[in-house]
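PROTEIN DESIGN WORKSHEET
SECTION A - STRUCTURE
LENGTH: 185
TOKENS:
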């Protein structure tokens, strides 16, 4: 089984595998180009974004700078917005529904490491997917941990550290994030 196959299936894998290193390098080249474009280069920007994020829906908007590991593991619905300086460690699938707003400095992680020292020191790692529903708002500076699901209509307060899944139509905040209130629609 290839290291990429292990990575995508959530098994321990070697991130220094030549194929994975090359894919991360290609993603970096693309997001560096995107991050350096000016506002007058909308057509070029959209073309590069589609190359970096081939599984993105219509209406994707990304304010530079933007950073990710691979790009192809990021799946977006319609009208998803990333504000400045977002980081998505997309070792596994990161799924965004429709109408998702991601504030500045948000970090979304799928990559994680073994807890036992011997395995961790071998530089092996693994990942857990992240799923974000429709009509979710993630406030600036929030951090979303591996394996988290955020259901439809939830709001993640700025600076929240989301370590556990979030039910629909609630506001969560704090470190670790807890439910602050329910949203009545």
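SECTION B - SEQUENCE
RESIDUE ASSIGNMENT:
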């Amino acid at each position: 089984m290839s290291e990429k196959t292990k990575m995508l299936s959530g098994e321990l894998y070697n991130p220094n595998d030549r194929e994975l290193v090359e894919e991360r390098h290609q993603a970096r080249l693309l997001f560096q180009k995107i991050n350096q474009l000016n506002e007058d280069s909308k057509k070029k920007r959209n073309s590069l974004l589609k190359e970096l994020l081939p599984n993105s829906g219509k209406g994707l908007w990304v304010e530079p700078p933007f950073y990710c590991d691979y790009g192809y593991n990021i799946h977006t619905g319609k009208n998803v917005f990333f504000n400045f300086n977002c980081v998505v460690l997309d070792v596994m699938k990161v799924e965004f529904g429709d109408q998702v707003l991601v504030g500045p400095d948000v970090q979304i992680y799928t990559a994680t490491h073994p807890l036992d020292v011997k395995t961790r020191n071998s530089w092996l790692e693994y990942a857990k997917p992240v799923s974000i529903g429709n009509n979710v708002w993630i406030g600036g500076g929030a951090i979303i941990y591996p394996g988290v699901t955020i259901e439809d209509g939830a709001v993640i307060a700025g600076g929240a550290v989301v370590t556990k899944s979030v039910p629909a139509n609630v506001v969560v905040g704090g470190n670790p994030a807890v439910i602050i209130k329910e949203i009545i629609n």
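SECTION C - NOTES
The first helix runs from residue 3 to 8.
The chain has a mean pLDDT of 95.
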